[in-house]
Design brief:
Chain lengths: 72, 262, 253
């Protein structure tokens, strides 16, 4: 460990602002992309589910109508 | 020789391949990232001249390297898309571009944060910085061109053309520090690898740097893979394999398809 | 029976020969050079019909150059130092104004598709259009460069080099510009995107051109930057038609 204490570590020999903003900024950029990817996957899945459910409902409606007509 | 690659021209095959490969990139990527960051921030010795601020190198150099590397990968995908009309390659182009642009942006802003305390300037129009800025514009241009067309395939082809035309910028960036007297220092790592000289950086700093370089490559690759799979899903969302993967049951219409007179 | 077969065979043979002859007649040799000249002549004629279109970039150039001293302050040494850059940026902007014209009007009325269908290499037709663009936007700039250098207080010893950089470098503007226009010609808001696409390609040119003039002003030989501009020029004029052809195929389909 190059630093005597945690406070010194955060202080970074006076360059705290520059060093920490660099690292935090980098991590934030990667995090943003990762979050966007995960959220996009969820949206795609939910859209697909909604679409399938709607298709299912349409199918059921058609079959119900057919059965009604057959019953007459 | 390339025949084993042919099945992956189909997006479905690539999707499943990526799903299998993802853990192999993610786990080492995270482990090496943590290792590299802790090593670089806490255990590497301070620099004789720059003190602690030099630690920015551990994100700056990997980001700069891979901004160029991923551009070449993107251009290669563009070549495949343009010449062989491979669908998956078009999607790969779209997947790589934002990640590469972010890497370029990271290299530029960490460079600025390093330059201000060290050389008293946020920005200088020297060869390497200017060329890196040009790289950012190239990435943005590729992304803008891709989405500007109504027909997505036309947009992909146009973006591929731009990506290929811009490849010439990569050697310019790399050799700029040799061709011109610039503010930016000359390369240490690649010189060590390609010329087999002793690197002009102390080994206690070189090793964490190498770890961070590999880590950033793995993490960026994971992001590209996630994005690529999303693009593939988006394009193939109505196909049976995609619905099966998402766990959505599809009831097939009744076999007796009698015409209905309503 | 055999007579019928023989006569049929004879008819087929004559028919075949006749077909071959017609194809040969149809395949008159098309002179690429002639088509190239035709394209240039036609484009120039069309451009001359709307002379205002030609003058607009030039007037724009003059206005920009007049505005700079007003904005920066007329101190002769400051102006002299930025003169080369200002002139080059203005040349770049006016070249971009003229770019839209190469392909857009032809795209709108379908002439571009016809050009792609000509029996000559598309690259040649494209090169013709690039030449026309250079003639219409760069030549006027080259003609009034002495005036511009005077207005911006560029020291006289650098006038020659400035003119040389413009002479060698403006083909790059036309060639790289054609690539950008080819990719965006079918888009509605292509104009803004065009600037974004061209900037990365043209920044090196700008850097070397101003470096050449600065070298002359410092008493050093400008041969290095001039040679590099020359190399870029040859490279871009040779290779751009390929990229333009690919871009046009994407845009027109």
């Amino acid at each position: 460990m190059q630093f005597e204490s945690f406070t010194e570590f955060l202080h970074m020999g006076g360059y705290a602002v520059w060093v920490w903003w660099s690292f935090v900024g980098t991590l934030a950029c990667f995090a943003l992309i990762a979050i966007e990817a995960v959220m996009r996957r969820k949206t795609l899945a939910s859209e697909a589910r909604k679409h399938a459910a709607r298709a299912e409902r349409i199918l059921q409606a058609r079959q119900a109508r057919k059965q009604q007509k057959a019953a007459h | 020789m390339w025949r084993w690659l042919h099945p992956y021209a189909k997006p479905e095959a690539t999707f499943h391949l990526i799903q299998k490969l993802l853990p192999w990139f993610l786990v080492p990527g995270v482990v090496l990232s943590v290792l590299g960051l802790v090593w670089g921030l806490a255990f590497a010795p301070p620099d004789y001249q720059q003190g602690e601020s030099y630690r920015i190198i551990f994100v700056h150099v990997p980001a700069a390297m891979w901004s160029m590397g991923f551009y070449v990968a993107m251009a290669a995908a563009g070549l495949l898309a343009l010449v062989w009309q491979i669908r998956t390659a078009e999607l790969a182009l779209l997947a790589i571009a934002p990640v590469g642009a972010v890497l370029t942006f990271i290299s530029l802003f960490t460079g600025a944060l390093w330059g201000q305390p060290m050389w008293g300037t946020w920005w200088v129009w020297d060869a390497r910085l200017t060329a890196q800025l040009i790289l950012l514009f190239l990435y943005l241009g590729v992304m803008a061109l891709y989405v500007a067309f109504e027909d997505e395939r036309a947009g992909a082809k146009a973006a591929s053309i731009l990506a290929l035309v811009g490849v010439i910028n990569i050697p310019i960036i790399h050799y700029s520090v040799y061709w011109w007297n610039t503010l930016h220092q000359q390369s240490t790592v690649t010189r060590a690898i390609t010329r087999l000289e002793a690197p002009s950086i102390a080994p206690e700093m070189l090793y964490p740097l190498l770890v961070n370089i590999v880590a950033m490559m793995l993490i960026s690759a994971v992001l590209v893979m996630l994005r690529l799979n999303n693009e593939i899903l988006r394009r193939e969302i109505h196909r049976p394999w995609a619905l099966k993967y998402l766990g959505i049951a599809v009831s097939t219409p009744a076999a007796n398809a009698t015409t209905e007179k309503e | 029976m055999t007579e019928h077969v023989t006569r049929a065979k004879a008819a087929i043979t004559t028919g075949h020969t006749a077909a071959v002859k017609t194809t040969q007649q149809a395949q008159r040799v098309v002179s690429s050079r002639k088509v190239f000249q035709q394209i240039i002549r036609r484009d120039l004629r069309v451009a001359m019909r709307q002379r205002s279109d030609l003058l607009n970039p030039l007037i724009f150039l003059l206005i920009v150059i007049t505005l700079f001293p007003l904005g920066v302050g007329p101190g002769p040494d400051i102006l002299g130092r930025i003169a080369a850059g200002v002139i080059w940026v203005s040349a770049l902007l006016s070249a971009m104004l003229g770019l839209e014209r190469i392909f857009r009007d032809d795209f709108r009325d379908g002439a571009l598709e016809q050009m792609l269908l000509l029996p000559v290499a598309v690259e040649l037709s494209v090169l013709g259009k690039i030449v026309v663009h250079w003639l219409l936007t760069a030549v006027p700039v080259l003609l009034i460069t002495p005036l511009l250098a005077l207005l911006l207080n560029l020291p006289v010893q650098a006038w020659g080099v400035l003119w040389l950089t413009l002479l060698i470098g403006t083909p790059i503007l036309s060639a790289a510009g054609a690539i950008g226009v080819a990719l965006t010609v079918s888009l509605n808001k292509g104009g803004a995107l065009l600037s974004l696409l061209l900037l990365p390609l043209l920044v090196p040119l700008l850097i070397f051109a101003t470096a050449a003039v600065e070298a002359t002003l410092a008493g050093v030989s400008p041969a290095g930057p001039l040679a590099l501009i020359g190399a870029f020029s040859v490279l871009s004029v040779t290779l751009a038609p390929l990229a333009v052809k690919a871009g046009l195929r994407v845009s027109v389909n």
